Amino acid sequence: MSSGANAERTIVVTGATGKQGGAVARELLRRGFRVRAITRDPSKAAALALRELGAEVLRGDLDDAGSLRSPLEGAHGVFSVQNFWETGYEREVAQGTALAELAKEVGVDHFVYSSVGSAQRETGLAHFDSKWKIEERIRELDLPYTIFRPVFLMDNWASPPLRSSILAGTLALPLDPDRELQQIAVRDVGVFVAMAFADRASWLGRELDIAGDEPSMTRAAETFGRVIGRPVSYAQVPWERYREQAGDENTEMFRWFELEGYDADIEVLREIHPGLATLEEYLRTSGWE
Fold first, then answer.
1. Long-range contact list for 229-234, CB < 8 A, 24+ apart?
2. How many Å apart are CA 103 and CA 248, to the nearest integer?
3. Which of 21, 178, 227, 284 would you label with 198, given CA atoms 20 to 30 Å apart?
4. Is the dihedral of CA 187, 25, 130, 174 positive or negative?
């Protein structure tokens, strides 16, 4: 699709002031789409920044489907993402299914949902299973959909406890030092989603796990060290100590990383999106140097 054709299509972006929604909105705007960015607070800095880039910023609440009806009217596409860590299982499922049902009701042409890597693999993790439940509803509704399943976000490394520890010289997690962890830069989630909206016919009905790199913990620490210019070592945290620090759901997720792990096909993904960032490329362009 040409940028001129993109300009004729409006995409509603939920979670527009969050990591994924923000990345999607920015990439869509870069490609010339019209963007309706949905946020509970249009006055917050992230919302104002999107408005400066050309987005129409509208107030909407995923807990109140009625508040989303007007923004969805006349839209070509919807990007749907919810945050389990803010909502918990039941509320996330309610938000995701209500939005999909509304999109079906108003006749949206393309519904792109951000799930989670390996949601289809019966992991038993609540924040994976909630997204699988939403996926199932999307398929039941016979929506024209695309589902992306991002793995661990590289942007999570910037969370204050992890970042502070890494900058002080230690990457500390409970995984085995040689355990690889697939991860993806959130901006690359934005690229995949924008590609789907730009080429609807090629992407309808597709469900794709997406990742950009899979370093071991030792290699990740070495990568951080190269980027920040001083040594970073990996320290394996005992599981019970990690549980005390991070809680049950996070701990069970890392146990699953240790025993199973994501299985996105990065080689194939790089053919689709050649600019897919490695961890080092992401860090060097994200304020870590």
1. 229/289, 230/169, 231/169, 232/166, 232/169, 232/170, 232/171, 233/169, 233/170, 233/171, 234/170, 234/171, 234/172, 234/173, 234/177
2. 34
3. 284
4. positive
Q: pLDDT digits over 98-128, tens only?
A: 999 999 999 999 999 999 999 999 999 999 9
Q: 283: how many CB neighbours lie within 10 A of its CB?
A: 23
Distance in angstroms (rounded) separating the CA atoms of residues 16 and 126:
24
Q: In Å, how far from its chain's centre is CA 37? A: 16
CB atoms within 10 A of CB 73: 12
What distance in Å separates the CA atoms of residue 218 and residue 280, rounded to the nearest whole number?
Answer: 14
Within its chain, how far is the Cα of 281 from the centroid? Answer: 18
CB 183 within 8 A of CB 151: yes
Residues 71 and 12: their CA atoms lie apart, in Å, by 7
pTM for the model stands at 0.96
* Class at the top of the CATH hierarchy for domain 3-150+186-210+263-276: alpha beta
Cβ burial 229-264 (10 Å sphere, 16+ → b, else e): eeebebeebeeeebbeebeeebbbbbbbbeeebbeb
Instruction: Give the CA count within 13 Å in the CB-facing half-sphere of 173.
Output: 25
What are the structure tokens assigned to 158, written together? 């910037």
Do residues 213 and 279 touch, judged by C-beta distance below 8 A?
A: yes
| Helix H or strand E encompassing 208 | strand 207-210
Q: What is the DSSP letter of 257?
A: H
The predicted-structure confidence for 4-50, as pLDDT tens digits, reads as follows: 778 789 999 999 999 999 999 999 999 999 999 999 999 999 999 99
Give all strands of the β-sheet with 77-80 in edge-to-edge order.
56-59, 34-39, 10-13, 77-80, 110-114, 145-150, 207-210
| DSSP of 67-127 | HHHHHHTT-SEEEE---HHHH-HHHHHHHHHHHHHHHHHHT-SEEEEE--TTGGG----HH
